[in-house]
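pipeline stage [seq->struct] | target=Chondroadherin-like protein isoform X3 | organism=Bos indicus | residues=758
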Amino acid sequence: MAGPQSLSLVLLLPLLLPLGPNRCAVAQRCPQACVCDNPRRHVACRHQNLTEVPTAIPELTQRLDLQGNMLKEIPPAAFRDLPHLTHLDLRRCQVELVAEGAFRGLGRLLLLNLASNRLRALPQEALDGLGSLQRLELAGNLLEELRPGTFGALGAVTTLNLAHNALVYLPAMAFQGLVRARWLQLSHNALSVLAPEALAGLPALRRLSLHHNELQALPGAALSQARGLARLELGHNPFTYTGEEDGLALPGLRELRLDHGALQALDARAFARCPRLHTLDLRGNQLDALPPLQGPGQLRRLRLQGNPLWCGCRARPLLEWLARARVRSDGACWGPRRLRGEALDALRPSDLRCPRPGAEEEEEAEELKAARARAPGGAPGEEAGAAGPCPRTCVCVPESRHSSCEGRGLQAVPRGFPNDTQLLDLRRNRFPVVPQAAFPGLGRLLSLHLQHCGLTELEAGALAGLDSLIYLYLSDNRLSGLSAAALEGAPRLGYLYLERNRFVRMPGAALLALPSLFSLHLQDNALDHLAPGDLAGGRALRWLYLSGNRLARVSPGALGPARELEKLHLDRNQLGEVPTEALEGLPALLELQLSGNPLGALRDGAFRPVGRSLQHLFLNSSGLEQISPGAFSGLGPRLRSLHLQKNQLQTLPALPGLGELELVDLSGNPFHCDCQLLPLHRWLAGLNLRVGATCATPPSARGQRVKAAAAVFEACPGQAARKAKRTPAPRPGAWGTPTKGRRQRANKEYKGLEGHGL
């Protein structure tokens, strides 16, 4: 039994030990750059510019937060001295390589976060030793491929996040070993092909996110491998048609999202093998008609908002089916005129006008004509005709409807591809000219790849008959111009890639032939000027990429026709100032890239024309030495990120109007920390963000963070009074301010110890 001396020591010990998160540091070590919460076994070493995993971390640590450092590489057995880790955060550490066996010894780890790094590949055994891992975050890297077996040792993982990478292809058995995975996130990649066995070996998978990719046909065979799926997200992919022949068979599927794609037609039996489907999301497509769906008997919600629905006689079967099957729907009629704007669920079949035989109204005749022209190669649901023979030097895959002649040394565009081809890959051949009518019989083609072919010209009518074409890749050629006549055969073209050619002027005339153009890529050409009229044909344009040209001027009105523009990339050009007047008339602009231009200074109101819409502004590496106090006036609460890193700023005004910022990067500027910088210091102190601003001068302040360098600004006029006004009076009972009762108890215990000779 403990004596009075022991009891007294126990009572007094909390008053004698250091306070704060390191109060147990006497018992366990803590690296100098870290904060250790030993009672909770948490260690945080965030944003310390660490280049390697710190040593001397307490062995019993369970949560280790290293985000925001500069580790570059995770070497083998990097955490072997921390066998009790359950959570490891390595976000934003500029990691480019994870060595084989990097995490061996972490058998208790539950969460590994490697998001927002620079990983391009994962070695075969990089993730070995993580047998208990439940969640793996790899989003926001540069991964271009997944090797089968990479995840073979992760049998306990339930969530794998691979969103926002650069994946273009999923090979067979890509996720072998993930037998308990329930959610697989693959959104925001560039996936265009899934091998038929890509999703094999995922028996527990319930949710699959594939939205925001480049899937040009529903990969039914691959998806049907994950037979336990309950939720499938395929929105923002360029499908134009889906039918029973796509082979989607998911008996447990409850929710299917096909929103904001390019669907123009849907077969009645497209989801016949998804009997439990409850919610079908078709918002934001190009559907003007929809047949009664056969098969999904449990369907209760059909979302159709944002489609140009034609509520003519042909829509009667749809309304009758919706009522009979008790399916709730949204969406509104686009026509005919008398029903425009009417909610679909408010209409009765009798509201639709059906003309007598032989007396069809003009609007119904137009609708029928449009419906027949819309279906690729025939009516929706019609079986594809016999595939034509494949050219001798090429490979044609009927299951995926892809044909490839990549790198075959061809000197002319081959002919004779199957008439249902949807993707044609002719990259890395040698034909300088694409002749007239070069692709006969390919009315269903969605994606055409002609990169690295030495092209100097597309003749008039080169794309004739490509009515369904959405993607055209002409990058890395020798093109210096394009005519409207060359592109007239592809009225639905949405994405045009012209990077690394020889353009010195915007091919404005060609854009007139592309009424549906969504995204134009002209990076790394030789454009020196944008003039009024250059974008006259870009009225539907949303994304414009002009990085890496020689642009020294963007004239007022040059961008005006593209009123729907959301992304404008003008980085790595020769602009000497922000083209403020050219930004007039862009009410939807969300992202503006101006980094890498010799801007030098920002004048008042530089971004006022886009102040109500802009969310992301990039001004890094622009030689900025001066920013006017009113430079960002007009930019309101919508702005989310501001990039000013790697400039020559010695001072910067406060930015009080930008209170909703989620990211501010001021790193790499030579800030002079004197009283002139005090407003910025005060503004940064009120932000719960790490901005990277450090003092370069005077020498006494070098290396200190502007946000935290309170001592540097203490002598500034008004700062001491402001600090005194903000400092609250000590609260009775707070740590470091003993109350009268606590002092009395401590004195009593101390006297008791004295009485026992201690």
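stage status: PASS
auto-comment: The longest strand covers residues 35-37. The chain has ten helices and 43 strands.
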